[in-house]
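Quick one: structure for this chain?
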Amino acid sequence: MALLFGGRSSEHTISCATAGGVLAAIDRSKYDVIPIGMTRAGAFTLHDDDAASLALNPAAMPEVHDNGSRLLWPDSTATRELRVTDAAGTTRSLGNVDVVFPILHGPFGEDGTVQGLLELVGLPYVGNGVLASALGMDKHFTKNALVAAGVTVAPWVTVTPPEWRDDNELWRGRAHGLGLPAFVKPARAGSSVGVTKITRWEDLDAALDIAFAEDSKALIESAVIGREIECGVLSGRDGAPARASVAGEIIIAGDGFYDFEAKYLDSSAAQLVCPADLNEGELRELQRIAVRAFDAIDGCGLARVDFFFTGSEFIVNELNTMPGFTPISMFPKCWEATGLGYTELIDELIQLGREAVR
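Got it. Here's what it folds into:
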């Protein structure tokens, strides 16, 4: 099994931390692991099989450094052999690979690009296919797909820098129609990178500058007042329907929101409660909508569906096709509370990847 992590996106370090969790927990009696680190420049390197070097550490976040090695993917679908050329120029075989586990977050990894590479060379892989990955990465098109499937989402407008510059009055008016508070987000980024909550329209331009630094289009979205509830989804086995976990809840300290720092750097900024306090009917409805959202993007393997719960309605905030997967992340916590531990969850995902029909 090849574990692929790192990548070119701003979520590089989180992907590395996820790899550390997987390397520490994977069942070594079942799997021989080839760790493949992608540098920030996009080079595929053979990484040390060392979970400790990839541990989540807010003071020194893990990173893939270029050690001079280069992974060589199969040159046709006739073989599943991986090879590596070391820094001295010597090439050797790493053996045949049954499945690739790409735990990449953000653009150039979670967005269908790597999935397309793996399909071109005929390697089975864990997680969503090209379409679902690309669709799930783009918040604007995700919302369109969910609305078409009858799933309620927060009202939004999507704008590009040229549109904001050349027709500012029109787009500013559309944004004002959403009301305050509002969130400004890059269309294609995760881990709340580039996200700003605004409570004054005077702050909109600065928030868009932050979002545009991450992506060429941004969403301005109505803030929904409600509890933040999340749910994990896994594909079914042997043609069975997708499965949803119990729910988890994010409880934010103060009046902030679940940004990058709260997720990974400041343990006091938010509390993750799993299972969430929902009655049986509320949980069934949340799970129904989560599976509906997963199916709406042609999901495969796994996803995390994020909701706002107003007390009477579940509103989908986002759908993550490669959710945070560190041992402290909500996705594995929800499945652990459902009865599937971290090591068993890794095994289930690998088996789903091996069996996926794309």
